Write the structure tokens for this entry.
Amino acid sequence: MSTDAGTTTHSMAAPGAAAAVVARGIGKTFSSRSGEVTALDGIDLTVAAGEFVSLIGPSGCGKSTLLRLIGDLDQPSTGELRVFGKSAQAAREAQDYGIAFQQAGLLPWRDVAGNVELPLELHGVGKKERAARAAELLTLVGLEEFAGHFPHQLSGGMQQRVAIARALAERPSLLLMDEPFGALDEMTRERMQTELVRICAESGAAVVFVTHSIPEAVFLSERVVVMSPRPGRITAVVPVRIAGERTEGLREDSSFFAAVTAVREALHGSGAIPTGTARGVDLR
Amino acid sequence: MSTQASAGRRRSAVRWFAPVLLGLVALVLWQGFVVATGIKPYLLPSPTAIVDQLRQVVPLVWSAALATGLNVLVGLLVGGTAAVLAAILAARSGMVDSLMSPTAAALSVMPIVALAPALNTMFGTTSTTPRRLVVSVVVFAPIFVNTLRGLRQVQPVHRDLLRAYAATPRQISRTVTIPGALPYFFTGLRIASSTGVIAAVVAEYFGGLQNGLGSRITSAASNSAYARAWAFVLGAILLGLVFYLATLALERAAARRTGG
């Protein structure tokens, strides 16, 4: 593993050589009225370039917090975080990552194309190039006919696809996704997962994907990071070994079920927590 | 033709027809009451007498409505601009907010129209400035309060997104804050336009120039031309409606754009 690229503060490694994310001893405490709350404690994690990693765990295990730290939307209280060998802030300012949240978060006063173009517009890309890129991305997510529609005219699944197109707009080498399919129905969700696998294979981006769903994590990821709450810790990292392509057929494959079982056992066996407390984990 | 569509058409026809019918019934009752009781015209002129007068003074009502309408328009522009600038400052700085918000609340409960005689003395009785000033002050509070609320409506997910894009404060205003606040501003403008028309008409009751609807109403009444006074009142109602409908259309258009 390429841990060295991130841990050396003044590493001048070439971008291709640096791991996408290197976290060392990350802790995060929030101060509330009732005192300090430890959201994350002693997180060590490396995500290689081009690797798909899911964070899974019950509500309150800090998986979204960890994602926000990587995206520099919040700052860690302790530890060191490197994104492509840079500080999280430098990586954010350099637009090294694209991000998608549980809510699509589209701007309701912009049409679909305008929403996809937003990051390009903010970073000074010319009008013609923006339009071309938006058309290309909308074709990728299968919404080319909806470029002129406004978000409220689209279904939840379509809005989420627009948000993913927007996250991909600047060809980021890292995608941060915080339960992007959490609000979707099962059918749409499975279709979106298949599309995401295809899109990631095409773009070669590394992905950090937060989810509640074991099958979703297994279907998408090369490694599933299992977390436990109070304080948020990594309890296990389950490698998902799948031969061949990840397509719809995989959902009925025995290797898929084996990996689902492995993740489920890692979740339920986490520390001294009895099985019943792993609330918020979908066994879908 | 589907029954649903025709039912919908019937419902919208009823929606328009019902208030019109109610108005007509009220007018007929009014006319009948005046004729039957032989009530003196200075107490209550009949609708036919008012319409008769209106026909004679239409050009006068028109020019008076234009004069008053211009006062409302200028007042809305001046007061509205000041309110929006104040709301932007208040949204940016907590100190400005704690200064401005109580001031806006105080302005909204103060009987500003009562200041008209004092302003007439300050600016002279041949000036339209006192009336426009009254309108400006009256429209300030509703526009300020609503715009400020709109500027504070930025969704956390949009804030995170713009931070992820490393957007500058100017870019955040242009792409998220201002478009999000626009529907709220237009709601404030609609509320302000109604009170603005009332303020402009009433401000004319306290002397000064004799070109507006308010002045015409008082002078007709003091000349015992009661039906004519009512004709000008009708003009004031129509002027109020014009401003209300225009700002309502703006508000609806802004809400449609934001998917509201």
Summary: The interface with chain B takes residues 68, 71-73, 92-93, 95, 97, 99, 101, 103, 105, 107-109, 118-119, 121-123, 150-152 of chain A (CB under 8 Å). Strands of chain A lie at 21-32, 35-47, 52-56, 78-83, 86-87, 97-100, 174-178, 206-211, 223-228, 233-239. Residues 25 and 42 of chain A are 4 Å apart (CA to CA). The first strand of chain A starts at residue 21 and ends at 32.
